[in-house]
Structure formats: C-alpha cells, structure tokens
Amino acid sequence: GTNNDQELPAIAVRSGSEFLVLWQDRRNNTSSRDLYGQRVSAAGVLLDETDTTTDETNPANNFPIETSSDYTERPALTYSSAAGVYLAAWNNRTNGSAYTQRYSPTVPLTGTASFTASPGSGVVPLTVTFTDTSSGTIATRIWNFGDGTSPITMTSSAPLTHTYLATGSFTAVLTVTNPGGSASASRLMTVTEQITPSLSADFEGLDLGVDPTFWLDQTGSTGSNDDFEILLSPDSRALGTLQTATSSRHSTYAIPGWQQWQNYDYSGRMLISDAAGEVGLNFYSRNPLSDQKRYSLHNPGGTFELNATNTTLSGQLDTGVVPQSNTWYRFRVQAATYPDRVVLRAKVWPSGQAEPVLWQAEAYDTSSSRSIAGAVGVRTWGPGSKYFDDLLVTPLAVQADFSAAPLTGLAPLTTTLIATPLGQVLTYTWNFGDGSPLVQQQHPHRQPYLCRGRQLHCQPDRTKRNRQRYPDPAQRRCCHQLDHRPTRLLETG
After folding, report:
1. 461: closest CA among 440, 485, 432, 441?
2. What is the pLDDT of residues 408-453, one digit of tens each?
3. Please, what CATH class does the domain formed by 199-395 belong to?
C-alpha cells in the first residue's frame, strides 16, 4: 500500500524466534478497511507472502487473514506458549460482531544442541566418532573440531569421524540451526603424545603421490626435502623415492612423542631397483631435531650392516646379506636401552624365505654420545628406485635383569641389588632366596614399601621428611631402617 494505508498494528512475540504483526489496511479502498498480517523471524526475515494474485509463487506461505473484504478492522493479537498458536481477533464492521482465529507459527523453536564423542581422549593420532544427539527441528549442523581444520556442514544427523593429528586440548563444537535461530554444544578433546613405540603401515589404502601422515623427509644433513611419497612398487603401493642423489635421503616417522621411543622391535620389507644404490632404515634416530644422531641398517659397502652417526658402535656389525636388484628383503631390528649401553640386533632375509633363527648382527654402544631413544625411519642413497612396506614397530617384551655386589662373603652379608630391566616396568618383585618374604616395588621413583602391614612411600636418606610424613614412631623406624639397609627391603606383618 501507499503511505497512511496501514493502521492500528497488533504484535505478538513468540519466544524471541518470530513475531506476528496484524494491521488494518486501506490499500484496497480508502473508505474501507481490510486486515493484513505478516510473520517475521527474529532476524527480520519476512516469512509470509502477501495474498495477492500477482504474488502467488508459494501460496503455502500466505498468511490466511481475510483481505479485500472492506469490513474487517481493529485487530487484536496474542501468542499462547501453552497451545503454541497465535490468537487473532477483529471486528466485523458489517454486523458489529467480533471474530477470532488461531494461526500456527511458521518458525520452529530453536533446536537443542548435544552430541557424544568417543573416545574423548587418547594418544595421537586420535580418531573420534562424533554422534549428533540434538533435539528439535534441525536444518543444518556445523561441526568445528577445534584443531584448525575446516568446519564441516551437514544436514543429516549421521555420525562422522575426525582424526586429531596434533597433541593438546581441543574444543569440539556442534552448532545446530533452523529458521528460529541456532544453538551450540561443546566438548573438550584431549590428545597426548604417543610415547609407546607403535607403528603399523602397509600404505595400501593411500593415494599415489601423497605424503603419509607424520613422515618427515630430510637430507643427510637433516635439511628438509620432499623426496618420499606413496609410489607403485612392483607388487603394491609403498612408501618410496625415485631420488638418485649421491647424498643420503631420510624419511622419519616423527609422530609426537617419538623422542621417548625406546626398547622396540622394528620390522618390514624393502626393495631397491639398482643394487649399486643403497636402501635401509634408521632407528633411535634424532633426525627431526637436526642433530643427525641415529643408528642405521643399510648397505654402504655391499652388505647390509649396522652403522652409527655421531656415536660409536662395537660388536658384529655386518649381516653378510648382499641385496639383489628388484628383490624384496625382510628386516627385523631390535634396539634396547640399558643403564650402561644400547644394544642393537639385526637380521635381513629375502621375502618368501623363513626368518633366520639367529641374529646376523649384534652390536652395542657404551659411549657417552650414545642415543638412548628415538624415532624409526627409512634411508636411501644413489641410483635406483627404493620402496618400503609393511612397517611395524612394537615394544619389546619386558626382560628382567639386575646386578648384585658383593656375591660372596661372611655372614651377615650386605649385598646391594640394582634392577637393570629392559622394557617398561610397572612393578618389581624381589625374592632374596633366604626364605624372607617376597618384596614388591612400584616403578619409577617413589616406591611404596610394606612395613608392618602398612604401605609406606619412604624416601631413602630423607629421615627428616619421613618424620614429618609419618608421625607414628613405628612407621618412622621402618623408613629409617630402609635408609640404612638398602639391600634388604623390609618384611611385612
């Protein structure tokens, strides 16, 4: 209509999501009045078309207020939250009666956002399944995983997965929207370092040309490059390189936490198309830190042998195995850290043959420069295409060992026992062989001791602190005895 055609508006608001306006209108006849109405969203979007013959693109959106009647006027309007409807009333100028009509809202109430995430924490890479449990009418769902990746917009409530590739705490947010507005829910995801050696990669499911996650390519001087990618080997997809440079090339599995990897078994298979080149692997490698300290198994002199960079190896280094062109070779390496040395073992054999029973190479490093932990990786040099597949890293089984001195002497004999186990130890159980009770210790650092049936966290040579911790004189005596009798853990009972 034109100016001054609209009069006496009535407004009803529905929970902030939309409102309805009714008014009397003289656009059809300046001497009479009709009623017009419009539903409007909280964002100001008109939700109904005007009811005219020239605007019928979506008749379902027409608001059914009687128009062009010349006798409806003076509207009143309210919204009933209990009934969920608008109630309109108006006067009929022809017969003087009042009329009422109920109208449903157009905009649904804002949905309630909620979701589950499983698991909610874990080690990197952490793959989480997100399940939408929102209620109400939902038009779109926006998932933001909080780790810098692009949000995902969905219209369905189907579960989806996301893999966190970095460590830290990330807030995952689900935002649901409909014409009535939006609502959000969030959950905190915690991703920790992968400090336990673990890798299982056959590369078969990856696209050709991609760089596998966490693999860091470097030159022999630890400069960055991009030499390794997924290639088509003679029989499968594999991690490989076509680089023929006469300087070594390395790719390291630099997953967060690799600095703490120790005491592991590293196996897989490798192939080179030209035996004049080199193919091999690294372990206990510090390459990602650019200090070039690592141990290797490769063929610099023709045979596969153990080597060390920036430290020293002793023992049997050569496996005696000479690689042939275009032949897959299986390998297995074990790296173990002891208090006074690092021990390395290796074997290599043609794929399809039985694994050798004995280790072909066994070496150790007692130097102060030895690498006691580090990542695994692969390495190449010179002519030929090189491929690596079926890579597997698993922790070594725990191996018990200890030193004792002196071993002989007159009674009473005081002997110092020092545990030197291999692997990740949770508890120690000592049996002294003299009929005294078994004694258990927890690892590491503060170890609880059973004394007179009570579990104590005594700290050797800390009698003052123990006195503060244990006001009971009997408990203090236990700790005092422990301080001065390190060879005989206290009896129970």
Report:
1. 485
2. 988 888 888 887 777 667 788 888 888 888 777 654 433 333 343 3
3. mainly beta
